[in-house]
């Protein structure tokens, strides 16, 4: 044990209360010296003190490049490994937490203030949180929203999701943009050495792993909920004809289903391994291939299912569904440097030259040069020129790389659901 000594001098002027300001120098000034001694622990911290009124750093994020980021923990504790990606959305952290497409990933929010509105159970996009962890700059100590039923920290703890805050998210984002998405290890376990955690980050990879099987439903079910009236939009002129749609759950978000239902669709959601023959037996008006996590090349069974359905019924692919369609048509997909994650990505619709601000969440893209003749690139991401939409009129195919339900995000692309309705309607009329 050492001695922590703090010496200070107090200048006390006995006449300070009886002399005008400023006091004149006086020979009666006294210098009092106080000595405060506290025992130190081996790591230099003072012992015998009351618990600090603030939280100290108790977590580490180690990236595969060897960098170590000290932080404070909230939510669950333990050690997790995942791919670190950044999301540029300003709002909607609860929808992001419950988006199955984030399975196997740590999501870093570039917006510095998170937790301000707490959480409510109406905004969940799936049955649970699938992401590996949440990385933020500043955790709000209060919540201020009339819909709030729980704090973000309690919400994550109940769902066994780790979170860290008071970390330099801007510096990490710059690193990810420069070097690309990195594998990281998040830990609150002090018994684990930095070298051990670094080895974990370098021995795990997200490429080639089937993440869809961990997020899909176990059995078919009917979806009937529409968008609630207070949240509905773009409803003018919407017909109420019923269209029978089979939705393949590769990690589907609830608001995709709500938007389809609001446009007059009767939806049956099926697991990712549901046979194409069983789908065709139901004689649907259309098939939706949903969003989902990970590498499309790691799920060849899903590609085969798509191949068996193409040309027999109109199809609409979103995100992972778009990538699977690209592969089923003979094209190739590739892993992007750091992907697209956020609610503010500009996309140009090449058919009408309209620019849409879109919500996106993907790390893979379709290579348009690999697509066969007849397949049309309908949308392009204006940030990097990547393929953001496809169409193949001969087979009644349409797809988008981004999320037209935009939860969270702008509603510029909601018209895609109307286009799917029109595709099914025209196919029925031509039959």
CATH architecture descriptor name of the largest domain: 3-Layer(aba) Sandwich
| Radius of gyration of CA atoms, rounded to a whole number | 28 Å
Series of H and E elements: EEEEEHEEEEHEHEHEEHEHEHEHEEEEEH
Q: Which range best describes the helical content: under 10%, 10-25%, 25-40%, 40-55%, 55-70% or over 70%?
A: 10-25%
| The CATH fourth-level homologous superfamily of the largest domain | Class I glutamine amidotransferase (GATase) domain
**CATH fold descriptor of the largest domain:** Rossmann fold
Description:
Pathway: Amino-acid biosynthesis; L-arginine biosynthesis; carbamoyl phosphate from bicarbonate: step 1/1; Pyrimidine metabolism; UMP biosynthesis via de novo pathway; (S)-dihydroorotate from bicarbonate: step 1/3. It catalyses: L-glutamine + H2O = L-glutamate + NH4(+). One of its GO terms (molecular function) is carbamoyl-phosphate synthase (glutamine-hydrolyzing) activity. This protein folds into two domains: 3-34 and 55-202, 3-Layer(bba) Sandwich (Glucose Oxidase, domain 1), CATH 3.50.30; 212-430, Rossmann fold, CATH 3.40.50.880. α7 packs across α8. The chain starts with a strand and ends with a helix. It is globular. Strands 12-14-13-15-16-21-20-19-17-18 form a ten-stranded mixed β-sheet, with helices on both faces. The chain is built from nine helices and 21 strands. The chain is α/β, with parallel strands linked by helices.
